[in-house]
Each structure stands twice: as structure tokens, then as C-alpha cells.
Amino acid sequence: VSVSSGFSLSSVPSLGTRSVSSSTTTTTTPRSGPKRTNAGMPSSHAHRYSSSGKRSVSSSFSSSSNRRPQSVVDDDGSTARLTSTIDSLRVQLRAARDEASSARAEREASEGEAEAARRQLEECRSERDARKDGMNEARIKSKEWEDTARELEEELRASRETSRGTIEEL
């Protein structure tokens, strides 16, 4: 019996994708007894047996980063290292997502504070403009009152002169 295994990890950071693939091939040769042939086997299984009696079985799987390879064993421990690396990358990804979420929340809070400050500034400007308008109206009214007071003084002088003239005539 001979077993061969292979693993590969491919990562494309710019696309945000990672994939793990593994393949295992097992070849079995009978030790004694008659050689097996393709005779009598269904056509769908005929390809599994060679004329020398060797039987070959191949299996493979491909896993994306959110699924873990299920029962793959490697003699040099690279599967454990690979699984550990994947777990570490998942932890880092989770931490990065949490950090991005916190930054987003802080940004939204800052934007809310900035919007409140803009509204307050706008209210202050409106109040200032209203005060300016009020001062302008007060100046206009003051000038009108001064003009009215001058007119009344002139009328009073004219009335006094008329009264003096009348008194002198009498």
C-alpha cells in the first residue's frame, strides 16, 4: 500500500480570498491470490482496476477560508500548522472587523457632534443677524423720532410767534 498526500494554501490579499486544497492518492496491490481483471465489473468501475491487478483510489477536496479540512492527516505536521495559520488569520480578521466597526462608530459620533456644532453656529448667526436687524430698525425709529421732534419744535416756535403777534395786536 502506498499513500501520497499534498497540500497547498493560496492567498490573494488584494482580492481578500484564501483557499486550501488537499489531495490524497492510495494505491493497493494484492499480495497473493489471483490477479483481478476488469472482467465482470460494471463499466463505471472498470477504470479502477489495471491489468496488473492494482487498484487506485483518488480523493480530493477544496476548502474556502470559512470551512476547515475535515480529516486530513499529514506525516510532517503541516496540516496542524496550516490549521493553526487559518485560525490565526480568522482571529486577525475578526479583530480587524471589530476595529473597523469601532472606528466607524467613532466617526459617526464625530459627524453627529460636528453637525450639532454646525446647527449651533447657524443659530448664532441667525441671532446675530436678528440683532443687527433690530439695531437697524432702532436706528431708523430713532431718526424718525428726531425728525418728528424737530418738526414739533418748529411748529411750537411758529405757534409762539403767532401768539406773540396776536398779543401785541391786542
Shape: rod-shaped
Order of helices and strands: EEEH
Low-confidence spans: pLDDT under 50, at least 5 residues?
Answer: 33-50, 55-66
Portion of residues in beta strands equals: 15-25%
Keywords:
single chain, 170 residues, alpha+beta, 1 helix, rod-shaped
Q: What can you tell me about this protein's structure?
A:
The chain is of the alpha+beta class and 170 residues long. Among the domains are: 1-30 and 50-65, no CATH class; 75-143. It is 54% helix and 19% strand. The chain has one helix spanning 78-169, and strands at 2-12, 17-28, 55-64. The chain has a three-stranded antiparallel β-sheet, with helices on one face. A hairpin with a 4-residue loop joins strand 1 (2-12) and strand 2 (17-28). The chain is rod-shaped. Mean pLDDT is 73; it is low at 33-50 and 55-66.
